[in-house]
Specification:
homodimer; 239 residues; alpha+beta; Jelly Rolls; Arc Repressor Mutant, subunit A; 2 domains; 5-stranded antiparallel sheet; 7 helices; 12 strands; globular; DNA-binding
Chain lengths: 239, 239
DNA sequence: CGGTGCGTTTGATCTGGATCAAGGCCGAGG
DNA sequence: CCTCGGCCTTGATCCAGATCAAACGCACCG
């Protein structure tokens, strides 16, 4: 099996897609799902495998259907900034630019659903609710970007880590799965490059939060939020 | 004259709008300009005057037509993050949320062009090129937000200030006005809150750039970029 | 003109988080 | 079962930028 594993799908994939309720595809009514299905390709990624690279022509848009993806940029001397972590339901491709401004790689075993950009645009021109959904997504992403800029510009290390734990899917009690259980598939170094810190500071800060009883380490890659309110106060700087 | 000065416009304002070539309105063909005109209100702001406040219902979208605006958020203990500086041609209102997540204030004497959100949406539904232009804007703004996050997460003070000077309108030789002449209507403290630094560090860093001959102070609020290439290298971390 | 009040610059000192440096833990592979 | 290679934690030290503290410049105004 080749490393880069993309396949046209069998029929009806979208109807059974576990990520659809969270994704932009939710705005496509069931009756029209076959239109999406006709365009969709499923891509399977091994841990560490690249989905696209900075500078590549941006020929596709993506929906993450399982696993997780990191997007990042590098400075010339190797400093890395992780722009975001993407999980099931997240959409990549709002940027209308011709070339990717970020690289994207799987963190763990991951599947994404891929559409040719031109075909997706054509569908969008026809199904206006899809365009509206995308504009709404763009607004949400912009709001998230602003929160992250506030974090990076003005929050302390402990406030950053607290914010991060609360932003990850799983921290809020609404989602499926045991409430307050946060999965951390990324390394300390990746968290650091996302939060504008070093891996040592991230590690020390998590230790501080554990010692304070705000979180508990459940396993190597899972934390339980023990005091969500206290963590929220910390995250928001309501000292 | 009341402090909050908004007026329905006389006819034909949009046709003569100096900011139109730079703004989303550029995508509305001349023949349809009367539609915009019918919706537009002009607002005049004194220095420091608020345009909207965090938490206010977001009833309008705006286009800056002259002057400059700062948008910002505060943490509970007073730490401020300036999300952006907006100049002629810039659009506010991509965020589809019902309430403003930022406050916006004039930095200097400023005029903005205001549309009721519901009316603007209605126009958008009709004139699809306006929606497309807005989606493109959203993409651009997202790309800019990512660059700013990289700056905040991983760049040094001098790299941040260099990036800032180059991002301001006027730094690039394409724009009207003398090439390389950058207007800085905002205070050092505002630059600091935008760049994640303190005002002292901004001041010292500007002094360093002056001493290095990369920029020259033309007046209290104007800098001339003397070595744009060297400044660009600094800004991009191509050490 | 001589205050007076911002905003800016510059200097001295401090500190949160970076950097440098060991070990520790654990899963994979021999 | 041991060893190897990642990743993580913890400790010691360092330093870029924060904080504290004066002046300085300049527009505004009585």
């Amino acid at each position: 099996m080749p490393a880069d594993c993309a396949q046209r799908r069998g029929g009806g994939g979208c109807a059974h897609c576990a990520a659809r309720p969270f994704s932009v595809c939710a705005s496509v009514p069931d009756a029209d799902l076959h239109r999406l299905d006709a365009l969709a390709e499923t891509v399977t990624l091994a841990p560490g495998q690249a989905l696209f690279r900075e500078g590549d022509p941006a020929t596709h848009v993506f929906n993450v259907t399982s696993g997780s993806v990191r997007t990042y940029r590098l400075l010339a001397d190797g400093r890395r900034h992780i722009a975001g972590f993407l999980f099931a339901g997240d959409f990549i491709g709002l940027d209308p630019a011709e070339a990717h401004s970020l690289s994207g790689e799987a963190i763990e075993a991951t599947t994404v659903c891929r559409f040719r950009k031109v075909a997706y645009r054509a569908l969008m021109a026809e199904r206006r609710e899809l365009e509206a959904a995308l504009l709404a997504r763009a607004g949400d992403e912009l709001a998230a970007a602003r929160r992250q800029m506030l974090l990076l510009a003005r929050k302390t290390a402990i406030e950053r880590v607290a914010s991060f734990l609360l932003d990850l899917p799983g921290a809020d009690p609404l989602r499926p799965g045991p409430a307050g259980l946060v999965r951390l598939p990324m390394t300390r170094s990746e968290m650091a490059d996302y939060l504008g810190l070093t891996l040592e500071t991230v590690s020390r800060t998590l230790t501080r939060l554990k010692r304070g009883g705000l979180i508990r380490q459940v396993s190597l890659t899972e934390m339980r939020v023990e005091k969500p309110d206290a963590l929220r106060m910390l995250a928001d700087g309501d000292a």
